[in-house]
Specification:
Largest sheet: 8 strands, mixed
Structural class: alpha/beta
Number of helices: 21
Strand content: 15-25%
CATH topology of the largest domain: Rossmann fold
Shape: globular
Strand order of the largest sheet: 12-11-8-6-7-14-15-23
Number of strands: 30
Helix content: 25-40%
Bound molecules: 5'-O-[(S)-butoxy(hydroxy)phosphoryl]adenosine
Radius of gyration: 24 Å
Number of domains: 2
Amino acid sequence: MSESKLEALLDERREFPPSKEFAKQANAQPSIYKEANADPVAWWRKQADRLTWDKAPTKTLEWELPFAKWFSDGTLNASVNCVDRHVANGLGDRVAFHWVGDPEGDKRTITYSDLLTDVSQAANALTSLGVKAGDRVAVYMPMIPEAVVAMLACARLGAAHSVVFGGFSASALSDRILDADCRFVITADGGYRRGAVAELKPQVDEALTKCPDVKAVLVVKRTGQDVEWMEGRDHWWHDVVASAPKTHTPESFPAEQPLYIMYTSGTTARPKGIFHTTGGYLTQAATTHNYIFDVKPETDICWTAADIGWVTGHSYIVYGPLTNGVTQVLYEGTPDSGGKDRWWKIIEEYKVTILYTAPTTIRTLMKWGHALPQAHDLSSLRLLGSVGEPINPEAWIWYRKYIGADTCPIVDTWWQTETGAIMITPLPGITATKPGAAMTPFPGISVDIVDNDGKSVGNGEGGYLTITAPWPSMTRGIWGDPERFKETYWSRFPGSYFAGDGAKRDQDGSLWLLGRVDDVMNISGHRLSTTEVEHALVGHPAVAEAAVVGASDDVTGQAIVAFVTLKLSADVAEKDQGPLVAELREHVSVMISPIAKPRQIILTPDLPKTRSGKIMRRLLRDVAEHRQLGDVTTLMDPTVVSMIDGLMAQHSSDDD
Ligand code: WT7
């Protein structure tokens, strides 16, 4: 890297002051922190008034560590909060979703009135199939409006949904159906991805050979492909839902009624069924959505570019935004369905104002170059969000500069499936931002960074992220396994929730998330985050993406091995790869410290990623340590890792 580029990047790591435009009319005013943190429990009780309760709660928090109840004597219906009450308030004609299909031109507009009819019909149809309050229903769907309708219809009946990402295999689906004892499945014949048909019903059929207790399968016709049919068990949505009565009288449920289960991977092979309940979850989803994204329901067009198969889709496509009554874009496809500028076309066409996505996607878009977004009118955008992993400063700067016209505030939001809603984030108009930092806990949330012994660290130091007080949208546990819940999250630092993430407080006290602690390396006794080294590598102009692992080393304990993909524009001939690797190692040494200099850098055309886009470092560690490869079944493309293994063997002479 040239000196000037390096200087420019370091200079760009400056602090961005809070936007004055936002400060004038932001939903959150600076007093919010003082108010909330003076009495967080009382503040959250006040936030619960955003919801429509059939019986308002008189209790706020009951806390028997690690099990919390919030608003437990209140009763409500989640789908009424998301839909009916907006129609009752005269907003029935407001668009709930501008749905954009993967194939260009495939689109639908759904108002809140339409949504009410759809959810009512689906609730009636599910009732006729036997779904009752307290049941669990698996949802395995493409990103179509019926997926949202299915979730809300379950919620309306007091049945917990368990949405399984449509990219998961039949065996992952059957594991999840069995673990939660789901008796019903809602699916589609298939969906579209980059114009091609991706099948779903055949996976369900295969999964159900292992799930004899599933009584009914409801199938949306999306692609029209031929599907197997089991009479008596399988039902077409267009038969049973479309013919069902158009009104449905909702029942009221206690605040602690289970709302959903969402499976997430832990450190062991068995996924954990993280479950959430109704009143506290809706309160925090709606409150965070309101203040962090500063939504103005009359004018904003929100686009959370995530799949409803993940928690981001649950909290920031379904429950937060719908509780707040906003208009959204719901998009079925990938960033390059129908061309690498598809996203920019969508933003331009629907005048999207608030965009929320993941760093891995930002880096992909960045790799395709800024000429594509620059050819479109993105001036409607006023706020950008990031979630899912630490965002490297270069991607943050690119996002702000080329997508956000150098004016949009960026909210880097830290949270987890387990936390249910955002926990650490800047607030637009209030918090100064730093590229790569999530900055500060949300009002009413208490976190601490602690050392190995659980002692709080000072400014300028790093440690483990813990959450020190209960919060409304916290998971109520691991489905069917309270012991595992205690052990996984509450045993490491007694009294606190251990998030599994490393974090640091900088000299000003701002919070930086450093990635999972299992990815923190110890090099000659120095603690280094894989993320820090990755940030440095991605800061080099030739690098598109980097994954760093700590491989065991006889001398230094661990040594750094980096796997790097290059930008399309960085056309490097075979003979120039050696010098480039040397330059990259030097670059890291300059950017962080000589301690951080990777022992080895492998240039590879691709990295092994899960279907949700996370790089699987565990497999890269296996490669780096010349071990037998672990389980590759959750990878998007299982062949990538054996290819990298081959490259590693070829280049093992790079070591020095
Ligand atoms: C893990 C949770 C939250 C919805 C999507 C992921 C990492 C998440 C950030 C962020 C740094 C982040 C953490 C966390 N993570 N957001 N803004 N900065 N790291 O949900 O699959 O439950 O993953 O994602 O490591 O523990 P998830």
